[in-house]
Amino acid sequence: MGNVRTDQIKRTTRELVRRFPDKFTANFDENKRLVSLLLEGATTKIRNQIAGYITRYLASEEIEDESEEIEEAQEEGQSS
Fold it and tell me: Thinking of the domain 7-79, which architecture would CATH place it in?
């Protein structure tokens, strides 16, 4: 079974990624540092949960982008 995250964690993650799209990476430690700078007063547990979800969220977006590129390349190869 997967990890269960509260709506607060997911909502905060989406908001941070939307507001600062170029700051976050697929590196957990870097994301943890950025979250602690951007969210004052967040507990260590909440900070780590948000940083972890950001890392996973960005990794899943990269996988989607790569699969779309592969599909487009296959379609172009079939049409020629």
Answer: Orthogonal Bundle (1.10)
> Domain ranges in the chain?
7-79
Distance CA 66, CA 74 (A): 12
Token pair for residue 2? 């997967």
Please provide the average confidence, as pLDDT, over all residues in the chain. 87
d(CA 34, CA 9): 15
Residues in CB range of 59: below 8 A, 6 or more apart: 26
Please, which pLDDT band fits residue 80 given cuts at 50, 70 and 90? low
Task: Tell me the per-residue pLDDT of 57-69, one tens digit each, with 9 for 90 and over.
Answer: 888 887 777 777 7
Report the distance separating Cα 28 and Cα 15, nearest Å.
18
